[in-house]
Specification:
The chain is an alpha+beta fold. It has a single domain, classed as Nucleosome assembly protein (Arylsulfatase, C-terminal domain, 2-Layer Sandwich). Helix content is 39%, strand content 12%. A 4-stranded antiparallel sheet has the order 1-2-3-4. Strand 3 and strand 4 form a beta hairpin. Helix 1 crosses helix 8 and helix 2 crosses helix 7. The two termini are 39 Å apart. The relative contact order is 0.15. InterPro entries: NAP-like_sf, NAP_family. It holds the Pfam family NAP. Belongs to the nucleosome assembly protein (NAP) family.
């Protein structure tokens, strides 16, 4: 081997050594960031629990927050809105808060409560639904999965409840039943049955909706509520009576349409997102 070739070989080995050292640094950075996120979750969990009880006493707090969020309406049918007025509670809990295991950073739950005290009989049954999520790696990419949980659909929507339609029919569905089934699959209430394991055969964009709630709507709920208050951001000369919130938009009938989440707000201090989306090392 010539002296020139020896130099090239030595240089290649040095470069490989430096690159390996950099890779180790990146692993340490990821671990430090993850540890910091877990620490923050543990420190703030008690504050969120305190906030939860306060928000339950504010009329239509969560409906106003959902209405103010720019992306939420992309995931639901306009017919769902009247029932979301009775969302009494949204609560996100990370399993790692209860343990010291980094493995538990992959798990979180979303609890949603409904309570209608304005109508008799109620438009939706009083209930609290807890849906759990876990991060898995499929083909080198992280994704969320969940198990279906039971939810009492509003009586007015019972005819499009996919589970009820399938249960009542042993054979092939008629064209009319298939249409109702597809309509039901687009309802917010179908999200509770989402698993992430049956693409194209369940509620669309279930993972995106879960992340939107956990990483945006929930942690920044008070900000959204404040922005919706009458006169927010207006001068005294321009302030006027607050307009009624309107989330309605035309419903896309094409099942293949993918929902755009390009408007999602970026938050540099969103530790919840750091924990839920961290890749396995």
């Amino acid at each position: 081997m010539s002296s020139e070739e020896s130099k090239i070989e030595a240089g290649s080995k040095d470069l490989e050594k430096h690159l390996n050292a950099l890779a180790e640094c990146e692993i340490e950075f990821d671990k430090a960031e993850n540890d910091a996120a877990i620490y923050r979750l543990k420190k703030t969990s008690g504050i969120y629990a305190k906030r939860r009880e306060i928000l339950k006493a504010i009329p239509q707090f969560w409906y106003i927050v959902l209405a103010e969020n720019e992306d939420f309406s992309d995931y639901i049918r306009t017919e769902d809105l009247k029932f979301l007025e009775f969302v009494s509670d949204i609560y996100v809990h990370h399993k790692v808060v209860d343990t010291n295991s980094a493995e538990d950073a992959k798990y979180f739950s979303i609890t949603i409560g409904f309570k209608d005290t304005e109508n008799e009989p109620p438009l939706i049954k009083e209930q609290e639904i807890k849906k759990e999520f876990r991060t898995v790696v499929v083909d080198g990419e992280e994704k969320l999965e969940s198990e279906p949980v039971a939810v009492e659909w509003p009586h007015e929507l019972k005819d499009i409840n996919p589970a009820a339609i399938k249960k009542s029919k042993e054979g092939e569905l008629s064209a009319a039943e298939k249409k109702k089934y597809r309509m039901g699959m687009k309802s917010f209430f179908a999200w509770f049955a989402w698993t992430g394991k049956k693409p194209g055969k369940e509620f669309r964009n279930g993972e995106e909706l879960a992340r939107l709630i956990a990483e945006d709507i929930y942690p920044y709920a008070v900000k959204y509520y404040s922005e919706a208050l009458p006169g927010h951001g207006e001068s005294e000369e321009d302030s006027s009576e607050g307009e009624e919130l309107d989330l309605s938009e035309s419903e896309d009938e094409a099942d293949s349409k993918q929902v755009s989440t390009s408007r999602k707000r970026q938050r540099s201090d969103s530790d919840e997102e750091t924990v839920s989306s961290k890749k396995q090392k």
